[in-house]
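Tutorial, part two.
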Amino acid sequence: MPRAAEPVVLVASSEFILKSSPVRRTLEQRLIDDLKFALRRENLDCSRVEKEAARFVVFGPKQTDLATAICRNVFGVAYAAAAVLLTNPTLDDVIETVVEFARREISAGKSFAIRAHRSTPTALSRHDVEVKGGSMVLIALKDRGVRVDLGDPDVTLHVDLVGSDAYVYCNKLVGPGGLPLSAQWKMLAVLDSGPLSVLAALAMMRRGCVVEFFVPVSNTVAHLFAESQLALARRVSRLVTRPNYKAFVLEIDELFKERHAANAERRLLRAMAIKFAMENRFKGIIFGDVSGHLSSLGSYAGLSPLPIFYPLLALEQEDLSDLWRLAGLESRELSLEDGSEGGFILSEAEMRPLLDEFPLSSVREVQL
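Running the prediction step on this input gives:
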């Protein structure tokens, strides 16, 4: 590999191109800050992160593959790739690097393609990189019986040509996409629907919202045991690129010991969460329902000026599966039965007494 080759992480953003120039610059800086924070938290500090054409380049990361895996979990990232930066390379330098990647990535009998992209004017030809690169890979790996397949290759080798430089990489790790955190509101998610509450929080985080959890816990209700509830909240905390990420815990056994009516507990919890969100200046509240009558879901709307979001409503199974993969959940943990309140309708007049009796001092803050 050429002496000038430098290991880097190449990061592609998700939706920034759709924004105006001032907004785009703000989002880009937030993404840079988030990438640095995510790496620093795992003791993988980098020397710098720079925007290069339509990509972000992480320079000087320790353990490039691990750094790539960390970057791919940052909101706003479309994909991340462990790459090699060639500074002022000749065509032979680029081809030599492509062949080294091929030796490492293409096993016997597999097909491959080389895709060269040009982000800015450059002296190197995309066509030459692809054609000569393919020929040299076939020669170098002739004992493995590899073949070119431009339609559906087993392995794709990428070369991005940017000015006088070139980036060579192979595996793209798909990120969560969306917008960087803090691009939008700070919101409160109610962790009363098991894993579905986590998916609802992630859906809003993908839209740039910082989401904290209102966490009911119980010593008697199995799905609200403190250990399991906080474990669910921590699945989100690993994706939050902010220090001091916290949740708000409410122990419900004493509060609920006199209540036995169907759905009363959930109605009370949500009333409490709304009041807590109002008092603590959250900009919205999130519920994890995946189904329900609109008249029932709208029964909370009159309690406060806060908008109430049901981001999982009407999502297909495939959409939910994408979110649980992001959360690192097992498929068996995803149940569409959780999170639905059924068909009851609760008036504002019935809900307000529940709000009035809720003591905010019952909520304690915990670091995740």
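Residues 92 and 129 are 9 Å apart (CA to CA). In part three we will examine how such features are distributed along the chain.
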